[in-house]
Amino acid sequence: MSGTDRFPSYADLHRHLDGSLRLETLRELADEIGLRVPEQLYFYRGMGLQEALDRFATTLAVMQTPAAVRRVAAEVCEDAAREGVTTLELRFAPQLHRGAPLEAIIEAAADGVDGRAGLLLCGLYGEPPSVLEALVEAGRRNPAVVGIDLAGGPQTGDQFGMESYRPAFRRAAEQGLGLTIHAGEGRPADEIRRALEVGATRIGHGTSLLDDPELVEEVIRREIVIEACPTSNVQTGAIARFEDHPLVEWLTLGVCACLNTDNTLFSQVDSRGEHERARQLEGMSDERFRQLVENGHRGAFRR
Ligand SMILES: [Zn+2]
Fold it and tell me: Is residue 148 part of a domain?
């Protein structure tokens, strides 16, 4: 990063499209459909994952049409570029945008990003496997799509679990699509292990990783990329404080961790700010920070 130490170019591999709208865009789109933006919009410390997930109802409501998806995708790319992000992946669940068929929604996002970001299509924990299969099929046909994700969180009583999606994940891999899974987000490390077993090569969050030393070894040996999102983790209650995030320890052990925003709107963060905060963590040497940034660039999915 010679000459770029003050303004390094960042990677953000974990940014949800429907959590990263500009506030003014959310307001404008909400006006168009006569929706009131709730006063309690932002995430807050310790709110819990479920309440955080519920916040997406508002942003999804205004992003039902291809035009809205295209606009938000384009603006998120502009915002990320302004933050110094040069490697960007945006993820969303096209099946939740019902204003057009799946393919048209994906195409709208692809139009919006216009080569500036790779797209990840998110299946959601608990959904029937057929939804994941449809995403893989649609993703296969759109070159802007670089990977598949499993997002949200498992609920008690879910009929389908991570293993139910194994055939869809296998098909994704056969098609050259990457696989990342939201796992160990304040849930036991066993979930990370299972995510690796069904084919994930990247893990979203993974805050409980260090609870299982054997798993840590496997993650290091296989160069599994862990997408850290510390501010989001404080808000969902996975960790108590930003300073408690295991990021520095991961890097010290040799875990391929990268730093991400998750949701710039809801979490009121941007990539530069998150990196600046991480830079101040105790034990974050120049070398570890350089590695953190490089892990993000190297971890991007490519087709
Ligand atoms: Zn996420």
Answer: yes
